[in-house]
Protein: Diacylglycerol kinase
Amino acid sequence: MTSEITLFVNPTAGRGRGAQAAQPAASALRAAGFSVRTVVGEDADDALTRARAAVHAGTGALIAVGGDGMANLALQAVAGTRTPLGVIAVGTGNDFARSLGLPVRDPAAAGALVADALKGSRIRELDLGRADGHWFGTVLASGFDSRVNDRGNRMRWPGGRFKYDLAIVAELAAFKPVPYRITLDDGPVLEVEATLVAVGNGTSYGGGMKICAGADMTDGLFDITVVGDCSRATLLKVFPRVYKGTHLDHPVVTVHRAKKVELAAEEITGYADGEPLGSLPLTVECVPQAGLIVGP
Structure:
């Protein structure tokens, strides 16, 4: 592997932590003997074009510095190639890094870990999800949680995580289950009233919410968590359990495993790694060993 690697930086991640994190991460990598080039795009499209150019030119690794959005953008450049992806997680949620057991909000430690892993060739092949051509690493969300995202993204005030807390309260007030048609592999077809459906390659979203707690990023299958028709009171009881993954034992929750899933529902947006994909229906496929990931 070449010693020339690329730092792929989101300067706005975590209220500016992305820009601040690039320097200690780069210092740790250079101290390990790597030649580091930094790529910062003018916008997401430009950044992705630059990242793909670096991969095409043969960079030894693409190291995403930012949050889950930046890691997801980097996946679009490296998925299906032999270029490994490293993550310096300094965003708000950092679920992709959490799923991989990587340091969070400690760019010097993460940079040192990535450098050590690259020098020791500790690079793993992991499954990735693909939804209508878009790659993702952790969870594709739909239903109540995606409506919270929709509302939070429309809000201009307050900033940070608090606006999503307010969005949860607002969505609970308007809450009602949604009719879903879920096709697993080539069958069976499930027609259910569901609060939400989450398709997990990784375990968590939303900064540690273990919605698909049993998901394994190496088994070639998704864990599909379906929270069925339930009252607001039941949802409020089940929701806090998601942080430990114990919600999966509740009678209103079912889990299915499949390589491919088709989701259809009216007026529901799909979000993958926290990024909006568009309205359902969506076809989602687990692609085994599609990503090379630098890690412990």
Observations:
- Residues 3 and 34 are 5 Å apart (CA to CA).
- DSSP finds eight helices and 15 strands in the chain.
